[in-house]
Specification:
By secondary structure, the chain is mainly beta. The protein has 5 domains: 26-113, Dockerin domain (Type 1 dockerin domain, Orthogonal Bundle); 120-217, Immunoglobulin-like (Sandwich); 228-340, Immunoglobulin-like (Sandwich), CATH 2.60.40; 346-443, Immunoglobulins (Immunoglobulin-like), CATH 2.60.40; 448-556, Immunoglobulin-like (Sandwich). It has 7 helices and 38 strands. The strands form 11 sheets. A 5-stranded antiparallel beta sheet has the order 14-13-15-19-20, with no helix packed on it. β16 and β17 (288-289) form a beta hairpin. It starts with 12 loop residues before the first strand and ends with a helix.
């Protein structure tokens, strides 16, 4: 994004105690008249290229950050030919017809005297989110942002419980967004955990010239009662509630269109009883949009989801979410339903290779399982050919950070080979992402020679627990290794060719069974404190017996 160009250009900011009509009027000096005769039409001169993005401060002719008598004096002198200087060309063209003439002078007089105003007007109230009561002492800055690139500070003030802030001369074009930033205020509203200081924005609707805006501050002791999730159907999870992140900024508005929260996070927000509207703006990074969108119920992806889940109810949230809070609770569970961008998918490339020669291995039987941790749908099965490589594309599940997206299941090995195991694959987004998986196998005519025991350290007895063992082959003097088996089970015997290896128990399974890592014992020979055992196979025989010692955790109930 272009560097923000900050220009200290204040609009008239007049504290008022009521409606627009209550703003004080300023009389013109005696003798100030519109030049006699036909209106003098003076075409606007060429402007600096950046000037076209400048916020038009209608009526601030001398560009002194105020609109008043001095502007009328300068415009009159200009029209009479007494000076060629104007502080800002655009600000003097109040009727925006491309020329500066007596009509603009008339409009300026009306604006100064309170009889009319050029551009839009906004009244800004600072109120408590939950009670609607005015908040005093909040420091607020108002900016104008044009075309999402140029930012101009229009004014700053401390809120007064007995007054509102009135801004006039605001451009009402669609390219203008008005951004309010509250950076300091009463201690009761000083919180960092969810609501914090407020950033809010507003626009003028087409044809609208007057706008009343509430800037909402939420007290530190307010309790969040509304969470707005983002349900990713490719992942099959609510990324806000379960993973603490989202694909877009969710803003919440009151029923009059004032923004209450600019970005509702995973902690939710506090809202009083009433009617609300939520909208989402997808995040971008360096101009690249997150490769997801709000799900369209008639999209091809939606049809895919209905095939997987016939009972699924897909809600159209493309236009935002209207909801009601009653008795302190939302009327339903709230979330935006998300899908990948159209015509996108992921892929997996599987290579079956010989670990000794690097050559392709033909005849390996494999299956591809989608969402192995939930609906476990088999989407493909194949046997490796002479290339050893297979590509499967058109994949629409991601599984990121929750369950595995896909499992490449090893169904059968060709005769004379050992090793290999099922592989798991995850993705972040559905965005033409390929996962390259190499499955390594070894030729061996060795007898089945590998086995291990899990023993209780207390008495050396066998620990009958469902804990498997990983076996890694050391492939270089630098300690490089590759996993040969990932699920060797206690009591079974496997074949290993001559070479150097290490074995380690599955730590997650140990914890699930109520045990810690393998513990030290007199005849334990661990490579590390995690209980890895290094060994060799020579002439088909293991260099040592593999004994893992474990100890069960004691709970408070066990101690009693």
């Amino acid at each position: 994004m272009t560097q923000l160009k900050r220009v200290a250009a204040f609009f008239t900011a007049i504290a008022a105690t009521g409606t627009l009509a209550s703003v004080p009027a300023f009389a013109l000096s005696d003798g100030m008249t519109v030049p006699a005769g036909e209106p003098s039409e003076i075409a606007l001169s060429e402007t600096d290229p950046e000037e076209i993005f400048s916020t038009t401060i209608f009526g601030d002719v001398n560009y002194d950050k105020l609109i008043g008598i001095a502007d009328a004096v300068q415009l009159q002198r200009y029209l009479l030919g007494q000076t060629e200087e104007l502080g800002h060309w655009w600000n003097a063209d109040l009727n925006q017809d491309g020329v500066i003439n007596a009509y603009d002078f008339t409009l300026l007089k009306q604006q100064i005297t309170g009889l009319g105003t050029k551009g839009g007007s906004a009244i800004i109230n600072v109120v408590d989110t939950m009670t609607g009561a005015p908040v005093e002492g909040a420091h607020v800055t108002l900016y104008s942002i044009c075309n999402d690139q140029y930012c101009y500070m229009l004014g700053e003030w401390d809120s007064d419980a007995d007054a509102v802030m009135y801004f006039s001369g605001l451009p009402t074009g669609a390219e203008y967004t008005y951004f309010m930033d509250c950076t300091a205020g009463p201690e009761a509203y000083d919180t960092e955990w969810g609501f914090g200081w407020v950033q809010s924005d507003f626009k003028f609707d087409e044809g609208q010239t007057n706008k009343a805006v509430n800037l909402y501050l939420t007290a530190a002791n307010a309790k969040p009662n509304v969470i707005i999730g983002q349900y990713d159907w490719a992942m099959e999870t609510d990324v806000v509630r379960e993973l603490n992140y989202g694909y877009g900024r969710v803003a919440v508005y009151d029923e009059n269109g004032s923004m209450i929260y600019r970005n509702v996070n995973s902690l939710g927000c506090a809202l009083p009883d009433g009617k609300y509207h939520a909208e989402i703006t997808m995040y971008e990074s360096e101009g690249n949009r997150v490769p997801a969108r709000v799900l369209e119920p008639d999209s091809d992806f939606a049809k895919h989801i209905k095939e997987l889940h016939p009972d699924a109810v897909l809600t159209d949230t493309t236009g935002g979410i209207d909801f009601t809070v009653k008795d302190g609770k939302p009327d339903r569970e709230l979330f935006f339903e998300m899908e990948p961008l159209p015509d996108r998918s992921n892929s997996i490339t599987v290579h079956c290779v010989d670990g000794e020669t690097g050559e392709p291995v033909e005849g390996v039987a494999l299956s591809l399982i989608e969402a192995p941790g939930s609906y476990a749908k088999k989407v493909a099965e194949w046997v490796s050919d002479e290339t050893g490589t297979h590509v499967f594309d058109g994949l629409l599940h991601t599984g990121y950070a929750r369950t595995n997206a896909y499992e490449i299941a090893l169904d059968a090995l060709p005769e004379g080979y050992t090793g290999g195991f099922s592989e798991k694959v995850n993705y972040g987004y559905v965005n033409f992402d390929n996962r390259d998986v190499t499955m390594t196998f070894y030729k061996t005519d060795a007898p089945k020679n590998f086995s291990f025991d899990i023993l209780n350290v207390s008495d050396g007895s066998a620990a009958e627990i469902p804990v498997s063992c990983e076996v890694w082959r050391i492939t270089s003097d630098d300690g490089d290794s590759i996993c040969i088996y990932d699920n060797a089970k206690q009591g079974e015997t496997l074949a290993l060719a001559d070479g150097s290896y290490f074995a380690a128990l599955n730590g997650r399974q140990l914890l699930d069974a109520g045990y810690g890592n393998a513990v030290d014992a007199p005849d334990a020979d661990y490579l590390s404190s995690f209980g890895m055992i290094e060994f060799k196979v020579k002439d088909g025989a293991l260099s040592k017996d593999l004994h893992f010692y474990v100890e069960k955790y004691l709970s408070s109930a066990d101690l009693d």
